[in-house]
């Protein structure tokens, strides 16, 4: 759906501004077979390329803004320092469908380093609040279409593309082509979103087929443009998405016998345990809910203090339901108050209106305990190792595996991921519409939470 949205956005902009591209357009002509082959290999060449520095030109409200950034097509992700509309700058990270922003950190950006904290996320396009954000969303989204594992069809491009002009970019001779934005979409979704849409862009390629400039109409009088500064060298080790965008790149592979055994015993080891919990949950455009508290698998009780845009609240959850209580104090009372709780039983017809991403993650935490170990053979078949973090001496395995009848998913596409270190659960991640929610788990022997009797009666 993200791909359909970007195609629709570019199609709505139309192509009226193509004549405003830099340089004087020469007479267009059909591409030769050799040129079609060059275009057809461009996206595959990008997919295999190292991260590249960018310089973006964004026409916004009558002026052209210059934005520096970096792009890694293999993740894919973009990282840029963007004007904030108030005379300053902000840092921006993007992955397909999501934009994350944080306060400016010029030294970090200069070092191609991504600060870990202070980020919020929003949905691309639908979450944009200004013309600059919309323009940036369309342009960055378009950049993500410029990669593919295999070459495109040169015969199709021979029909649809035209040669437009020759020129010089960064001292390299280039040929510019007008061609469709090359993406694969769900045919039915594409037709329902924009049945007549055939958005195009300008691609400037050097003689080796490297993309040197990309231009697309984002709805202004001039084209938005991206120059790929391929001669700029930099250390890309720190160029990774923040946790809210999914963290470092994953490469799913089958778990080995030892890891399968560890995962199979994971929930059983929690059966008589309790732990401190720290939550971070994206719940809306530029909104992140946070929470601290405990989960006690001995009594199947979660007890947390939560903060979000609506204020602060306490949350008590057990298998039969949950209860909330609005508070003003930022501390979690050792003993829950006895009165004032708003109770939601999971069997209530209207419970879904109060059950959001925070509650979903809390209940997944409660589900991370079982009286018996899971089937090791089933885990070996269904679990995936996504990546390994930490150090050689203290590795952290990021895995996914089905729990309690989770829907089947392609490797790397499960709604939940689990961090496992020293044969214990250390973090649960949950994919949401606005990014990745996380719950850090730190084992500690907690006293059992005395759930008020009136609450316990209804939630278990």
Notable characteristics:
21% helix; 460 residues; alpha+beta; 2 domains; twelve-stranded antiparallel beta sheet; outer membrane lipoprotein receptor (LolB), chain A
What's the layout of helices and strands?
Elements: H1 2-13, E1 29-30, H2 33-40, H3 42-47, E2 52-60, E3 63-72, E4 77-83, E5 89-95, E6 98-103, H4 106-110, E7 120-123, H5 131-144, H6 154-160, E8 162-169, E9 172-180, H7 187-193, E10 200-206, E11 211-216, E12 224-229, E13 253-254, H8 257-270, E14 274-284, E15 287-296, E16 301-308, E17 311-318, E18 321-327, E19 342-345, H9 357-366, H10 376-382, E20 384-390, E21 395-400, E22 416-421, E23 424-432, E24 435-443, H11 453-459
Antiparallel strand pairs: 1-8, 2-3, 2-12, 3-4, 4-5, 5-6, 6-7, 8-9, 9-10, 10-11, 11-12, 13-20, 14-15, 14-24, 15-16, 16-17, 17-18, 18-19, 20-21, 21-22, 22-23, 23-24
The helix tally amounts to 11
Broad CATH class of the largest domain: Mainly Beta
Count the domains. 2
Q: How confident is the prediction overall: mean pLDDT? A: 92
Which structural class is indicated by helix and strand composition? alpha+beta
Poorly predicted segments: 16-24, 187-195
The largest beta-sheet arranges its strands as: 1-8-9-10-11-12-2-3-4-5-6-7
């Amino acid at each position: 759906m993200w791909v359909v949205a970007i195609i629709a956005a570019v199609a709505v902009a139309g192509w009226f501004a193509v004549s405003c591209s830099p340089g004087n357009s020469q007479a267009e002509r059909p591409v030769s077979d050799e040129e079609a082959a060059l275009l057809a290999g461009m996206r595959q060449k990008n997919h295999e390329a190292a991260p590249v520095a960018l310089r973006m030109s964004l026409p916004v409200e009558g002026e052209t803004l210059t934005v520096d950034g970096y792009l890694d097509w293999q993740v894919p992700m973009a990282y840029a320092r963007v004007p904030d509309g108030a005379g300053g700058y902000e840092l921006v990270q993007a992955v397909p469908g999501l934009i994350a922003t944080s306060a400016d950190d010029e030294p970090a950006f200069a070092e191609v380093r991504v600060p870990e904290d202070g980020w919020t996320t929003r949905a691309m396009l639908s979450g944009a609040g200004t013309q600059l954000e919309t323009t940036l969303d369309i342009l960055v989204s378009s950049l993500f279409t410029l990669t593919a594992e295999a070459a495109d069809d040169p015969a199709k491009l021979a029909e649809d593309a035209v040669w437009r002009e020759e020129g010089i970019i960064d001292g390299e001779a280039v040929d510019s082509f007008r061609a469709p934005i090359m993406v694969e979409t769900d045919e039915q979704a594409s037709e329902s979103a924009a049945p007549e849409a055939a958005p195009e862009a300008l691609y400037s390629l050097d003689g080796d087929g490297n993309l040197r400039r990309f231009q697309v109409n984002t709805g202004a009088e001039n084209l938005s443009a991206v120059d790929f500064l391929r001669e700029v060298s930099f250390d890309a080790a720190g160029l990774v998405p923040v946790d809210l965008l999914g963290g470092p790149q994953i490469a799913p592979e089958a778990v080995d016998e030892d890891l399968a055994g560890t995962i199979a015993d994971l929930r059983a080891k929690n059966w008589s345990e309790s732990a401190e919990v720290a939550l971070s949950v994206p719940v809306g455009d530029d909104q992140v809910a946070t929470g601290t508290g405990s989960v006690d698998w001995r009594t199947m009780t979660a007890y947390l203090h939560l903060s979000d845009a609506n204020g602060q609240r306490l949350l008590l959850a057990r298998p039969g339901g949950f209860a909330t209580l609005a508070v003003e104090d930022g501390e979690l009372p050792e003993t829950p108050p006895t009165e004032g709780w708003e109770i939601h039983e999971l069997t209530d017809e209207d419970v879904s209106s109060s059950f959001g991403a925070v509650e979903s993650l809390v209940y997944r935490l409660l589900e991370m305990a079982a009286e018996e170990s899971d089937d090791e053979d089933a885990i070996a078949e269904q679990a995936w190792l996504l990546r390994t973090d930490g150090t050689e001496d203290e590795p952290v395995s990021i895995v996914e595996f089905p729990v309690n009848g989770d829907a089947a998913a392609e490797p790397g596409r499960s709604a939940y991921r689990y961090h496992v270190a020293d044969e214990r659960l250390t973090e649960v991640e949950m994919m949401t519409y606005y990014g990745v929610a996380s719950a850090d788990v730190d084992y500690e022997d907690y006293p059992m939470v005395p759930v008020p009797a009136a609450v316990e009666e209804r939630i278990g």
